[in-house]
Amino acid sequence: MAQRLLREYTDIPDGTDCHRKAYASTTVSGAVGLVSSAYSLIHRPPSSVLEGVARAGRYTFTAAAIGAVFGLTSCISAQVREKPDDPLNYFLGGCAGGLTLGARMHNYGIAAGGCVYMGTVAALVKMGQLEGWELFPSPKV
Fold first, then answer.
1. Tens digit of each residue's pLDDT (9 = 90 or more) over 29-83
2. Rounded to the nearest 10 degrees, what angle do helices 18-43 and 49-81 cross at?
3. What angle do CA 16, 81, 79 make, to 5 degrees?
4. Which residues, at least 6 apart from 89, have a Cβ–Cβ distance to it below 8 Å?
5. 47-63 burial, b if ≥16 CB within 10 A, otherwise e?
6. CA-CA distances (angstroms) from residue 135 to 24, 76, 124, 131?
7. Per-residue model confidence (pLDDT) at position 8
């Protein structure tokens, strides 16, 4: 399931079809938010059903918003800069996602840290894709 969602995002060339790219990144991050909200509800059971629904929605929709902002920002920056395979586009997308998280938390420190860290991770992931890095290499027997 996760590979299918990620493939849906990576099959779209950078800088093209920004609406599809944003939809795919929103789907991936919304799924991550749904899983994290499930863990939160299992490990800290809510006192009422309403509290559980509110907490699940808070995690899921926050993650989906971060993914949407990342997808739109990285795609639009690729179009504007006319450099579709540049890690800077992903850094800008990650930075915008971190700023979205900081705005959601009402905290400037989280926004600044999220911008730096999420942007750096996104740029490193793009560099790894371009250079053929293997995150989990197959064992050599």
1. 999 999 999 999 999 999 999 999 999 999 999 999 999 999 999 999 999 999 9
2. 150
3. 15
4. 14, 15, 74, 75, 77, 78, 81, 83, 126
5. eeeeebeeebeebbebb
6. 22, 27, 12, 12
7. 85
Q: Give, in order, the Cα–Cα distances in Å from 7 to each of 10, 12, 58, 110, 112.
A: 5, 9, 26, 30, 30
Q: pLDDT, tens digit, for every residue of 117-132?
A: 999 999 999 999 999 8
Confidence of residue 23 (pLDDT cuts 50, 70, 90): very high
Block residue for tokens 């926050």:
62
Tokens (6 digits) for 140: 């050599």
Asked whether the beta carbons of 67 and 29 are under 8 A apart, the reply is yes
Q: Which is nearest to 122 in space by CA: 76, 62, 73?
A: 73
User: In the structure encoding, which two tokens stand for residue 74, read together?
Assistant: 């990285």
Tokens of 111: 């926004």
